[in-house]
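Our preliminary data section would be incomplete without showing what the modeling component actually yields. Below, a chain of 300 amino acids is followed by its predicted structure, encoded as tokens that our downstream tools consume directly.
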Amino acid sequence: MIDVKVKTFLTLMEEKSTIQCAEVLHITQPAVTQHIRALEKEYEVKLFKKEGRCLVPTEKAMEFYRMAKQLTTMEKHIHLSMQKQPAIPLYYGATKSIAETILPSLTFSMLQEYQGRKFKLLVQNTKRLLEELEEGNLHFALIEGNVNHRRYVCKTLLNTKFICVCKKNGKYANCTNLHELIKAPLLLREEGSGSRDILEHTLHSFDVDIEDFTICHEFESVSLILSLVQQDAGITFIYEEAARNYIEQGILQPLLPDMFSIERQFTFVALPAMPFTEDNEKMYVFLKEKLKNVSSVMDI
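Predicted structure:
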């Protein structure tokens, strides 16, 4: 069990108020103050400072928060490990690009391999999935965005390409340079998504921002974006796997392939040194092997 003082500290960091912290924990404000002072004395650091009426965490507090948060995550994982069940439920996440491309076949293989085990999938953007990992609500996540490799265990599942596409022979099919491309409506994912982050970094390498496009439309659905591109509503940047069938069928076509054919990875992401580390390693090996079979069929 986590020390009550650490729980108080974590709650205070999240609530940003001793009043709110006390209400959440059902203790008094003086008790909150006592717990924080006890931690400061024990670790010989200053965790908070007063700025007017605001309580502001110090750099040491931010460092302590990141480490203490891992304790709560580990506690959740230990609790799950100790459950008297023949098969522990598997909680995993995937970004939307992965969920709509390689995940259906992988999930079928998982269900076949681990019969009797309960699966629960969360499909969200990269930012949200990493938050859920930190909270201990996921065992692992399949992500295509940028991830801090020093903070997480990151293993490559698949190398893929990030490309720009439009309707085959549509209004924007004759774009031959970036200056012409930014005149087309841009259909893109919401902020926080891995593909949005990659797109922004890619455009910055050409000294271009998303705002430089004539107009931008944001959608949280990969399938909706693809449908709109097929109807010639604009262009989009997407993983090759998501658009592969449409390109092969002559419905969509790549744009400026010499500029936008960026090698990226679909990544298996987990927290280090957790009770499920061994299980995660086995799952990664299993998915990697299954993905080889899928990739050979798709000629990825």
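The chain has three domains: 4-78, 90-158+266-298, 159-264. The chain has a mean pLDDT of 87. Preliminary results of this kind motivate Aim 1 of the renewal.
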